[in-house]
Amino acid sequence: MTAQTDARMARLLHHRKAGLALGDPVVPPISVATTFHLPQTQGAVHYYGRAGQPTWDAVEAQLALLEDAEVVVFPSGMAAITAALLSCLKAGARVMIPSDGYYVTRLLGRDILQVYGVKVVQIPTLDMETADFAGFDVIYLETPSNPGLDTVDIAAIATRAHAAGARVIVDNTTMTPLLQRPLDLGADIVVAADTKAPAGHSDVLFGHVAGRDSALMGRVADWRRVSGSVPGPFEAYLVHRGLETLEVRLDRMCRSAAIIAERLAVHPMVRGLRYPGLPGDPSHKALGTQMANGGFLIGFELEDASTAENFLARCPLIEQATSFGGVHTAAERRARWGDDVAEGFIRLSVGVEPTEVLWQSIDAALGSEMGST
Ligand SMILES: *Cc1c(COP(=O)(O)O)cnc(C)c1O
Question: Angle between the 246-265 and 233-244 helix axes, to the nearest 10 degrees?
Fold first, then answer.
């Protein structure tokens, strides 16, 4: 991580200090009030809980430091994605989304945006680099894509999209603002599921929209207030706490992932390994310029569906769960959701377990599978 990222993280940890009076709590209170003392309507910071409240403010302040942008928080990643897209689109508009990205975003396009008269065009992530953006209002990227881990050049796409009159929205969930900074690379809006690594403990749904265009971010905040897509104060508190350890968790997760990917790549049971941190990987080109490291997600194939399921069942340190970015290493066979991947394809999200203990349990589970066939 760069010196700038380190400085942001340190500021995040102490962001409340300047506002504290003698005897104030160091961590933000979970403010449950829906109404605020309002003898007059002018001049109050808060007036009603749907429009804004102190625990959101605390977590938005942290995220604003990380993103170096205005931030509006939402009750889930999908709520944030919906708010961002609907703040940029109207009936008759055209949006390009990845056909190999997070599948609920595709459902949003098909079942909601299209119904309201938005034209949604799906293309593979890798084709976005050469796709013609003429006539589009929004180019929506996910890089690395989930679960395929393909990457595209955000800066190059932003330049071409802006020339074509389109805005660029980037789903930065897999990297977080500590590892990839789409707004610095020219994206107009970042959306993210803080449900994943930022909260980090698999116990809260949360999301945010970040951007540097105040008028546009005002529309996003209006969307939240008017649609009522609001996070709860306890959820905001949990994300605030999670963000304080994001950097140390990511450090362990990404270091372990790099080591495990390297070893899996040469394992006789494993094929088609994808990890952007490995020099031979097609996504390695994004390292350094766009991604700070290879991340904590690894994709690989075992022989077939049952080999993959048996491996997952045997490994005591892999939680068989969907989702990623949590403290527990987790994995699943993505074809069970209908993803366009091989039957034996596994997405592995490396957690914070001590690296060698984790590797030994993965290696042993692969070995015993080999013995049984
Ligand atoms: C999980 C995820 C989302 C949706 O987040 P929720 O909090 O589950 O609504 C969006 N994009 C990506 C890339 C994700 O992994």
Answer: 60
Note the pTM of the prediction, 2 decimals.
0.96
Q: Per-residue DSSP letters for 69-93?
A: SEEEEESSHHHHHHHHHHHH--TT-
Backbone angles phi, psi at 183, to 5 degrees: -65, -35
Rounded to an integer, the average pLDDT of 331-359 is 94
Tell me, using a 6 A CB cutoff, whether residue 235 lines ligand 1. no
Q: Would the CATH topology of 3-243 be identical to that of 246-372?
A: no
Q: CA angle 58-243-47, nearest 5°?
A: 20
Query: Ligand 1 atom 8: the closest Cα is on which residue?
Result: 77
Give the number of the atom of ligand 1 that is nearest the alpha carbon of residue 101. 13
The answer to whether the peptide bond before residue 144 is cis (omega within 30 degrees of 0) is yes
Q: Is the CB of 239 under 6 A from ligand 1?
A: no
How many angstroms does the Cα of residue 123 sit away from the middle of ligand 1? 19
- Of 3.90.1150.10, 3.40.50.1370, 3.10.450.50, 3.80.10.10, the CATH number of 246-372 is 3.90.1150.10
- Mutate-to-test residue for ligand 1 from 73, 78, 322, highest number of ligand atoms within 8 A of CB: 78
Q: What is the DSSP string of 149-177?
A: -----HHHHHHHHHHTT-EEEEE-TTTHH
What would the pLDDT profile of 54-68 be if each residue is shown by its tens digit?
999 999 999 999 999
Residue 207 CA: nearest ligand 1 atom is: 7
Q: Is 195 in the pocket of ligand 1 (CB under 6 A)?
A: yes
Please give the CATH number for the structural domain made up of 3-243.
3.40.640.10
Q: Could you tell me if 190 and 183 are in contact, meaning their C-beta atoms sit under 8 angstroms apart?
A: yes
